[in-house]
Amino acid sequence: MRSLTEGTARDFLWRTQNADGGWGYAVGHTSNVEATAAVVLALADAATAGIPFASVPPRSQSAEEQGADRAIAWLVAAQRPDGGWGLTADDPVSGWQTAWAVLALARPDASEATVRRGVAWLLAVPLMRLEKAEDVRWMKDILGIDPALRGWPWLPGQAGWVEPTALALLALAPWAERTDVRPRLDEGIHFLLDRHCQGGGWNVGNPVMFSRPLPPRAIPTAWALLALNRLMPEAVRAEDVATLRKEMHADGSTSALAWGLLALRSLGQDDRVAADRLAARQAADGGWDGSPYHTAIALRALR
Amino acid sequence: MPTGERRRLSRRAFLRLALLGGIAAGIGAADRLTWPAGLARYLSWAGRGQTLRLNGRPAVVALGHCSSYAEVAACLAETWALADMPDVQGKRVLIKPNLIDFIEGHPITTAPEVVAGLIDLLRRRGAAEIAVGDGPGFRRDARPVAEACGLLALLAGRQVPFVDLNYDDPRPVTAKDGWFFSVAEIWLPRHVREADLIVSVPKLKTHHWAGVSLSLKNLFGIVPGARYGWPKNLLHFNGITPSILGLYQTVRPVVAVVDGIIGMEGDGPLFGAEVPHGLLAVGRDPVAVDATCAELMGFAPSTVHHLAVARWAGVGQIERIELRGAAADRLRRRYRPPPAG
Lengths: 303, 341
Prior knowledge:
Chain A is mostly helical. Chain A has 13 helices and four strands.
């Protein structure tokens, strides 16, 4: 990635940081957990690449370092009393965003109490699980899925879906050796494998509807591949990767290209055309689509 | 006072107590039977529905016969005028097409020509701000769908913003009329919260869970995925019919412009077959418009659950509909129904 492109992208992120320390999906929007965590992870990547990120004594802190600290402080303060995170700091319900916050906050310090409470929330979140034989049979007939398998829901008490399951698996992966964590991860992995689309890839989690196969889509496929490759690389199939390559180009959006590239990179692969397409979407203001979230994931994908 | 004396219950008092107990038990049973709405809400809906059926003003629905999308601008102007639509002068208007997904060979999204024609019409009528937005339930991003179906190019030419409602700064608003049983508030996008008028512009098609997908069902796309996920599982858990009616009641005023110029039958909402129908339906009461469209598709509104409940609860007018414009008989078709949900 050209340094000029990275520099202008990082300038865009700093310019669009809200006064409270977080970021919204678009400039001027309420700070939310997904966008803020995505930016924190992009900045952490920059730190890994030698660009200052971690806290240093206040007198020598640059504006960027102060901004990063404020972002982390915003995430920490947004944690709800039950240990989870919602969409925004004032959301009264913890949900799928908890995985994002754990991913971002575990990067500097996975042993921190805030992170441990987030991990506990992810392990305990209730979700709908159908186990009666006739319900299972009906769901298998209509939707082609096993509803007895537990993935992770978007919101507590609901059904499991592909994207929150993949995110939760990624967030919990550092604790995979813990005896109370591994069985839950294994079930989540089987959930993902059960939701495979015919011919490869994933969509939201409905591979079939009334016996009709539903098509895979780029972003859930990328997230599922990231999670599988992290926890059970032998489960990654060539047809899933081929589906990702096809769907990310067919979709063509910033997030499809960026998540596709991130998934391919985790597999040790690349797609120069996709990288060029993604780079070409950068706007004159340094950002992608006027969105801090898109800019953060594009920055990570192109680095 | 002598010990051991017991006050005796008179027969009259006993009967009174028994009557009160019976009433209390009856109310309790009725409350259980009307769960999760509860008896009070149930009675208020029923009373409102009865009042609307007996004394409500007729709803006007204007029908246009439009054999191709090339004619849509003129057809829209005529039907909009016939339908006594609200004044949009100085208003902020959100146009909500159906952009559920793009699947080659299946007419599942609202035709961009209808949206473009509507923008031009609203501008001529003095709308202050116009935005077009949707939040698909099966795609993380709406923009690629809008691009694939040709909508983005038409919007760019008119300098109208496209808003992905899944990410449009969702904030909580009070859920009105009691249709969301487990939540008092529902999070909605900024453009929905700030619109003076929402124009629901669905594709006329069948739907395996809802029977038909028209202007009311189209409102599912205003629920932000960033809060509720993909798909928006809250709506399934709350129930399709209460969610449809609850969204409509919460975000009114909503008016309807239905794109049935090419409709879709059979395996909707995604895999149905094209029906060259030639119908454009316009009205300020989406319940009346959807009931009319369902009839023109060959489905009695009483067999479409959310329309039957809307009629019963007085959410909109179905009993008295005044049709204007093209003759309904020329626009009647028999759509193949969706697979049973």
